[in-house]
Amino acid sequence: MQLIKKKIIRRVAFFCCIAICMNGCAYGPNLPFAQQEKITDDPEQTVQELQSPLETQEQPEEVVVSKLYYSYHMLDSDRQKIYREILMALTEMKADVTISTLDKSVIDPIFVCVMNDHPELFYVEGYQYTEYTFGNAVTEITFSGTYSMTQQEAEETRQLIEQRVEECFDQMPSGEDEYDIVKYLYDWLINHTEYDRSAQNNQNICSVFLQGSSVCQGYAKAMQYMLQKIDIQSLLVTGFTNGERHAWNLVKVNGEYYYLDPTWGDASYTSDGSEHAQEGVFPTINYDYFLVTTDEITRTHSFEKVVELPECSAVNDNYFVREKLYFNQYDEERLLDIFGSEKARTEKYVAIKCSDEQSFGTMMQNLIENQKIFDLIDQQGKSVAYAFNEEQHIISFWNLY
């Protein structure tokens, strides 16, 4: 059978898209790319040479994606398939994996979904794709990750990270109450990490587990990594705070969704910017943004929604609710119990939260303006350090005794 011969023009364009990279807690919104074209014009080529890579290469097995990975389950079935293909390529560090789309515009948001779900991809820097066209029609798109290390280096690094995480897990409380576990991991992360904009690998978990210093994305990915290891769903959430890029977590605790910001819980990040803080040694950890609602987080954080996020309204596992430090009104008897407790005397620190602006104002007036704090701790004539978070209606006192 004589083959039909036809003039063939094949264009191959390479686009490199750099993964989210923050400077401190800020990263650039404009993602650079490079483009290269290769044109072949050979009348001796035949239509058989147009055979798609999809038809010649072995197809990847479907990756079973756990319910732990929030973004994946918010995509439609077509995008889920592309997600699985990208995840497989990045996990196995394969190149030129054919993906199930001819629309290059869907690649970036799905890539972001994969990265927001999977903190274990610490070696991924970005991606490139190759677009094949015949005439004006796209016939194939292949995907390749770009990496900061080789497969061997990535495996060696993973083992070091696992050793560090196991050290953390050795002291983790047992039991079915996920609140205690999440609080332990939050405390451990903050106690073992310093906020440092100059930290290496500060966009991934290496900075936290191997160097002990990071920025917001490193904190949030490390928190997510530990939670997922113990089968607690967590998502990396990105957006803006104070005009800068920022990252934090969505977490499912005891069946309810909450937001959690470990970076803003670390005094090495927050203490140097508190205009309300008075003299004294600021506590190492605060819980202002530990398991909070959508309403509470959006007072200071604006979302960059890659996928639809849940409306978080539960308060049962908020730190202040669980620790009985939440007030609907000024209650001096309860305050006496809290400030006179053995815990307050040992830690020399108490933070309380009010339900609304009115109760917060009443608490501020009584404790600070009228100086009733000194009656609660029976320390007349001495000084007490304090700070307040007006957005979250929280007042913190330290150097109490």
Question: What is the count of helical runs?
Answer: 14
Task: Let me know the number of strands.
Answer: 18
Q: What is the percentage of strand-forming residues?
A: 15-25%
Give the helix/strand class: alpha+beta
Counting copies of identical and different chains, the oligomeric state is: single chain
**So what's the overall shape?**
elongated
Low-confidence parts lasting 5 or more residues at pLDDT below 50? 1-24, 26-57, 272-279
Strand line-up of the largest beta sheet:
4-1-6-7-5
Query: What average pLDDT do the residues reach?
Result: 85
Q: What gap, in angstroms, lies between the N and C termini?
A: 96 Å
Rg calculated over all Cα atoms: 26 Å
- Share of helix among residues? 25-40%
Give a structural overview.
The structure is a single chain. By secondary structure, the protein is an alpha+beta fold. It has 14 helices and 18 strands. The termini are far apart. The strands form five sheets. It has a five-stranded antiparallel β-sheet with strand order 4-1-6-7-5, with helices on one face. A five-stranded antiparallel β-sheet has the order 13-12-11-10-14. The chain has a four-stranded mixed β-sheet with strand order 15-16-18-17. 35% of the residues are buried.
